[in-house]
Q: What sequence folds into this?
């Protein structure tokens, strides 16, 4: 009963508590009624069982309806029996009624006589889950368990029996529900089909037509005659229709179900369950619905006697056939003149409808995800031919509307199929492709095939025909067809997709496997062009084309090798393809292609061809070198010396792929070393002065990547590469070139000698000019270069004089973290000059720097903290300024918890500067700077040690900090710092120890840890600061000893 | 006898070498020897290789088996149309076969394809040459339709002056633009591999003799 009630009974969708007045419901209600009414008599024992919860509803019965069995008092009625708690088993206070047993239920129904049905309905409506109330929330399984445990309590046994009875009812009800669907009721698949056929005969284009078109959304018919998918058949659906009426109203999407026909929302968008929700009232049949929805239909249908239709229909069909054959003949006469027309005509012969049916099942369900593209193509072909048929029918100006009617039908019904296919695509094969793409950098747009169905260009049909010939041609014909294919505009997407959609790629790739060189060449020439489309590339890889191309690289024919390499270069634009090339040994073969001898002097025809092979090889390697593993593979295949040789080639078209590959590979350390040792820097520098911007860009980019290494930087200078780099800064229009050039300048300027050269070439002025209106990748490099140049004091003046500080400060507001790191560094460098600092202070840049301490990137944090140091050092009223940043000091102290060493060092340095101001020192002491610094003392990092010691030295000067440091145990580690090899650490440590030694207990600790010996050594240092600090510290220790001695001997 | 014959052949070779491109004397000599060897007993009949013999050579040496085409090739070799290929025609033919330049090959192929020798490749000639190049679809009502289509495609591609047939000038321009179309209407030049193996075989012996 439960299942039937929750699933089969049709609840009114508007009001929650009403049963719909449908035949199915009626049938089920009467079954329930019968069951309940007879229950008391049939199963007297079970009927006495008290419900866990009472059934309550609003009844129409009145006290007067009840008889002797019940206690009637005024309006209310009570049963004589009551349950354990003393509640009466039936209780009526009109209109509310409460019932506890089946006995009373059946009594009640017998009493209510003609109102029985109403009572049951009301009862079920009020108690949506009666089973739960009767037997409690337990399921059958639970009951069984209890039953076993309780050793058959009498009550339990009764419960079980009742449950069984109810289950029987449930089964009965379900049978009714199912029976309703299968029964030849008012609406059956056959009836609907008949009606649809009838309606179709009303369609047409003439004035007298009643409807524009009628079509099914699916052409596939299941064995039971339904067209709806099975899960919808469950709900009684037979099929869905799309009917276009002659009225202005939009197309009607109609669902026919066993209960009637109704409108639904249509198939727009995804197959959302909502799209099938009932939209209108349920009508008896299609004609009734259409009469209601289409005034035009209603009117015309009265004029034409519907009864006449069946006989008329046959006539229609006959004329159609005649018409069609006539047309076929006619167009065959025209064949010679109009080729595409003919192609279409052929497809008219293919009987698209029949074909569709054949393919439909597999598409529809069986293998949603596995539908091969070939099938799709087939189906689409059929679909298109349907369309073409339509066009043809219109084009031939046939006066008879009948043929059009047919054409219309075939087109529209196929469109329906296509749309259902479209819906499926996102979840199907394409998704799979997408997921396997592993987030490629290149392309990967979703397949747009589905959208291109509307208007197929002429080229499509021509290409389709050519590919058809290609499939059955010997080599002679193949070559002719291939050459003809090449005459299409293959860079145009329509042609590319057409080739793919008609299965041309398969054929072209198969041709690569033949022995015919000319066929291979012809095929590659086409593939090379079409694979500029990402979808085509993907398809080629999926069809295994890359493997074949790689094996062609072994061919003895040079033209073939070239084409294969070029095609590989074009295909290997995404990761999977590049991996494929490597895995099939392509890298090694491509590297071998590079092995030509470009002497330059003797350029014979043969040599020229060798060069071309090498060039194509380099192009392919360039594409492949975007994957790290491939870089390694190229190196192992011995590609570097060969590339180095190509680099000396005089031809630009050879140089670009060679430098491009090198530039790409220079991200690997092994390449950078090789570029340096193989003497390629010289050639790279030479080509900086080329007149080809692409070449210049790649050279600059290679230098950019290589110049991290000091020797490389020096080499660039030695080969006079700095001047051409500075010259290239003037090419401000080409942003890629500019980014590469500024990058190279940045890295080169890490060497001070290079900076001197840049000064000489007035590079700084140009660089400052580039601080505005440039893309970020340029800005990062420009600012980086300025930051490096600013390490030389004279340049600080230059930057200021060119007005470089303001634009630099403006960049502090950015979000690009690489840029922020460089900007803060540059600003920090600028702040070392007092005059610059005035400007920086005036622009409130320190506040901006300080806020960058909040940046999540530790590099930015550190860089900002480093920049803050000179600012505090050189600003006037630095203490006041720092205090003006609300929460600033707390923020910086908190950064001492950072896990990043560089951040810690920079913050220590900044704290050392901040602590110069006593008030600020007091504040940071309050923020707990002492224990935090103390906790860092165990570090082994010399840089951190140095700044930490400095910070400790500064912080000792406030209050009891000196003692606190001693208590926190910083002395012993600090003494150990003296053993570090870095003299800068020594100096800072000595100063810190001197400050700490002002507390006698610290002196004792120091002495215990053997501080005297190293300190005495340091007194002999050449560093005066160190000398003084060490000496003062020793003096303090000595002083303590003297005081102690004096106290003892006194 | 061999000394005299050798002398004779050498003289012939020397003479011929001046007229035939691409071969040096030694190579010409080798080819003459080969010619004589192929001729075998027929030598006394005098004129040279006949059709059967030639077809045999094409079949075995150059792997060209198509009967119609070998006939065409024979006609191209046999310049004086006496149904025999003389020594001179043999060497000249091979010169093109093995080492012809593109221009020479264009001329040669055109001659082969111009079946009636009227200086044009007509649609009918194309149809004749292409008729077996497509797999017949049994379903099609006109089995020749595909071939006709193919002829259309070829004419469209090659007919530069739009007179409906392909002249030598048309053919030349086409091939210059697209080398693949040199043998547009059927294979009439040997494979690179075959050439290499033939040359190796034919020119090897004398070097051993030296």
A:
């Amino acid at each position: 009963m439960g299942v039937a009630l929750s699933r089969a009974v049709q609840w009114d969708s508007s009001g929650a508590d009403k049963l719909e007045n449908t035949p199915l419901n009626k049938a089920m209600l009467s079954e329930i009624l019968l069951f309940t009414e007879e229950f008391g008599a049939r199963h007297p024992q079970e009927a006495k069982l008290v419900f866990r919860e009472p059934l309550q509803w609003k009844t129409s019965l009145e006290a007067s309806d009840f008889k002797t069995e019940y206690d009637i008092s005024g309006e209310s009625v009570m049963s004589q029996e009551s349950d354990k708690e003393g509640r009466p088993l039936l209780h009526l206070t009109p209109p509310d009624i409460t019932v506890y047993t089946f006995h009373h239920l059946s009594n009640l129904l017998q009493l209510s006589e003609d109102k029985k049905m109403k009572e049951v309905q009301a009862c079920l409506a009020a108690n949506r889950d009666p089973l739960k109330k009767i037997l409690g929330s337990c399921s059958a399984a639970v009951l069984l368990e209890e039953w076993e445990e309780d050793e058959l309590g009498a009550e339990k046994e009764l419960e079980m029996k009742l449950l069984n009875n109810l289950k029987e009812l449930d089964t009965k009800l379900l049978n009714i529900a199912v029976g309703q669907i299968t029964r030849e009721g008012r609406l059956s698949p056959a009836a609907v089909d008949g009606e649809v056929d009838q309606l179709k005969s009303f369609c047409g284009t003439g004035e007298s037509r009643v409807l524009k078109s009628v079509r099914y959304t699916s052409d596939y018919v299941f064995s039971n005659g339904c067209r709806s998918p099975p899960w919808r058949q469950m709900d009684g659906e037979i099929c869905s229709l799309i009917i276009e009426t002659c009225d202005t109203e939009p197309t009607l999407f109609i669902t026919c179900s066993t209960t009637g026909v109704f409108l639904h929302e249509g198939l727009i968008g995804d197959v959302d369950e909502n799209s099938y929700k009932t939209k209108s009232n349920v009508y008896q049949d299609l004609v009734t619905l259409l009469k209601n929805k289409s005034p035009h239909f209603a009117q015309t249908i009265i004029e034409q006697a519907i009864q006449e239709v069946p006989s008329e229909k046959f006539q229609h069909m006959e004329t159609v056939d005649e018409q069609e054959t006539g047309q076929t003949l006619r167009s065959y006469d025209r064949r010679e003149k109009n080729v595409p027309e003919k192609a279409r005509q052929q497809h008219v012969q293919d009987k698209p409808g029949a074909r569709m049916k054949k393919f439909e099942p597999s598409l529809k369900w069986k293998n949603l995800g596995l539908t091969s593209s070939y099938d799709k193509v087939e189906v689409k072909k059929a679909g298109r031919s349907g369309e073409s048929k339509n066009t043809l029918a219109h084009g031939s100006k046939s006066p008879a509307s009948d043929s059009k009617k047919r054409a219309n039908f075939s087109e529209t019904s196929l469109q329906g199929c296509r749309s259902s296919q479209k819906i499926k695509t996102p979840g199907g094969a394409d998704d799979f492709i997408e997921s396997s793409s592993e987030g490629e950098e290149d392309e990967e747009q979703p397949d747009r095939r589905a959208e291109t169905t509307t208007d197929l260009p002429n080229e499509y049909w021509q290409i389709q025909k050519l590919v058809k010939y290609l499939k059955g041609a010997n080599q002679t014909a193949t070559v002719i067809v291939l050459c003809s294919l090449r005459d299409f505009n293959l860079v145009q997407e329509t042609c590319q997709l057409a080739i793919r959609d008609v299965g041309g790629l398969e054929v072209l790739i198969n041709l690569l496997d033949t022995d015919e060189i000319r066929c291979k060449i012809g095929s590659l020439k086409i593939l090379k062009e079409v694979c500029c489309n990402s979808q085509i590339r993907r398809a080629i890889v999926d069809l295994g084309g890359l493997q074949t191309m790689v094996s062609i690289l072994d061919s003895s024919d040079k033209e073939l090798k070239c084409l294969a390499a070029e095609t590989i270069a074009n295909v290997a634009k995404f990761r999977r393809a590049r991996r494929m090339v490597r895995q099939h040994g392509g890298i090694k073969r491509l590297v071998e292609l590079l092995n030509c001898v470009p002497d330059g002097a003797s350029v014979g025809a043969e040599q020229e061809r060798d060069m071309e092979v090498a060039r194509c090889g380099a192009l392919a390697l360039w594409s492949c070198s975007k994957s790290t593993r491939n870089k390694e593979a190229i190196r192992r295949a011995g590609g570097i010396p060969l590339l180095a040789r190509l680099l000396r080639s005089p031809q630009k078209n050879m140089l670009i792929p060679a430098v491009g590959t090198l530039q790409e590979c220079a991200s690997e350390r092994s390449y950078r070393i090789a570029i340096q040792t193989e003497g390629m820097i010289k050639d790279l520098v030479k080509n900086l002065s080329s007149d080809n911007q692409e070449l210049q860009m790649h050279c600059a980019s290679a230098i950019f990547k290589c110049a991290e290494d000091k020797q490389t930087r020096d080499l660039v200078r030695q080969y006079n590469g700095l001047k051409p780099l500075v010259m290239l800064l003037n090419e401000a229009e080409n942003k890629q070139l500019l980014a590469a050039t500024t990058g190279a300048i940045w890295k080169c300027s890490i060497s001070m000698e290079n900076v001197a050269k840049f000064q000489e070439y007035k590079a700084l002025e140009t660089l400052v000019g580039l601080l505005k209106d440039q893309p970020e990748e340029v800005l990062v490099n420009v600012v980086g270069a300025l930051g490096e140049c600013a390490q030389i004091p004279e340049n600080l003046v230059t930057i200021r004089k060119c007005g470089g500080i303001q634009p630099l400060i403006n960049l502090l507001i950015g979000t690009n973290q690489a840029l922020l790191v460089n900007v803060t560094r540059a600003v920090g460098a600028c702040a070392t000059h007092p005059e610059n600092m005035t400007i920086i202070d005036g622009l409130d840049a320190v506040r901006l720097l300080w806020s960058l301490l909040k940046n999540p990137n530790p590099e930015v944090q550190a860089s900002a903290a480093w920049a803050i140091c000179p600012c505090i050092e050189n600003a006037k009223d630095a203490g006041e300024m720092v205090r003006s940043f609300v929460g600033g000091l707390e923020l910086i102290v908190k950064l001492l918890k950072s896990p990043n060493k560089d951040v810690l060092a920079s913050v220590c340095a900044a704290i050392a500067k901040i602590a110069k101001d006593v008030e600020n020192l007091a504040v940071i002491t309050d923020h707990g700077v002492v224990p935090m610094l103390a906790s860092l003392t165990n570090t082994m990092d010399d840089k951190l040690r140095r700044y930490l010691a400095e910070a400790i030295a500064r912080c000792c000067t406030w209050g009891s900090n000196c003692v606190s440091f001693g208590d926190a145990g910083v002395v012993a580690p600090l003494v150990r710092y003296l053993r570090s090899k870095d003299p800068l650490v020594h100096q800072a440590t000595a100063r810190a120890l001197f400050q700490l030694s002002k507390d006698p207990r610290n002196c004792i600790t120091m002495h215990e840890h053997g501080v005297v010996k190293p300190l005495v050594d340091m007194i002999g240092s050449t560093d005066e600061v160190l000398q003084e600090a060490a000496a003062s510290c020793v003096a303090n220790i000595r002083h303590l000893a003297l005081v102690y001695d004096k106290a003892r001997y006194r | 006898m061999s000394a005299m014959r050798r002398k004779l052949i050498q003289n012939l070779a020397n003479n011929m070498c001046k007229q035939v491109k691409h071969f040096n004397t030694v190579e010409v000599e080798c080819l003459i020897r080969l010619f004589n060897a192929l001729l075998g007993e027929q030598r006394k009949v005098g004129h040279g290789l006949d059709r059967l013999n030639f077809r045999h050579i094409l079949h075995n040496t150059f792997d060209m088996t198509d009967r119609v085409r070998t006939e065409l090739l024979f006609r191209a070799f046999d310049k004086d149309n006496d149904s025999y290929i003389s020594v001179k025609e043999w060497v000249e033919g091979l010169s093109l076969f093995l080492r012809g330049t593109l221009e020479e090959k264009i001329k040669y192929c055109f001659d082969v394809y111009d079946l009636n020798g009227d200086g044009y490749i007509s649609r009918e000639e194309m149809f004749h040459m292409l008729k077996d190049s497509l797999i017949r679809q049994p379903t099609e009502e006109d089995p020749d339709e595909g071939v006709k289509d193919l002829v259309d495609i070829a004419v469209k591609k090659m007919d530069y002056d739009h007179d409906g047939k392909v002249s030598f000038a048309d053919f030349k321009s086409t091939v210059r633009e697209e080398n693949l179309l040199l043998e547009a209407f059927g294979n009439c030049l040997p494979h690179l591999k075959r050439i290499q193996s033939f040359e190796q075989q034919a020119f090897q012996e004398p070097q051993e003799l030296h």
In short: The longest strand of chain A covers residues 237-245. Residues 679-761 of chain A form a domain with the Leucine-rich Repeat Variant fold (CATH 1.25.10).
